Amino acid sequence: MFDTITALRMATSNYGRLFEMSTYQPPYQEGKLGQIIEGAYADLLIIDGNPLEGVACVANTETQKLIMKDGKVYKNSL
């Protein structure tokens, strides 16, 4: 079993690093993965809550304030 912070890192920033080390050609040659910096590629989920106190806030549609996938915003209640 992993603690919450380890599980979140495995699903986010660590996945970007793993993807870059895989045998597949990274599809985003001009941008970075797994980082929130200018020029990076990212899907974003902004929540009203602290997932370190309980990951249920991540799946709760009431606490999901912004959902962005492939550069398209699907929900924005900020």
TrEMBL record:
Stored SUPFAM superfamilies: Composite domain of metallo-dependent hydrolases
Signal peptide (UniProt feature, chain positions): none
Residue ranges of the TM segments: none
GO MF entry, a single one: hydrolase activity, acting on carbon-nitrogen (but not peptide) bonds
Record-given protein name: Amidohydrolase-related domain-containing protein
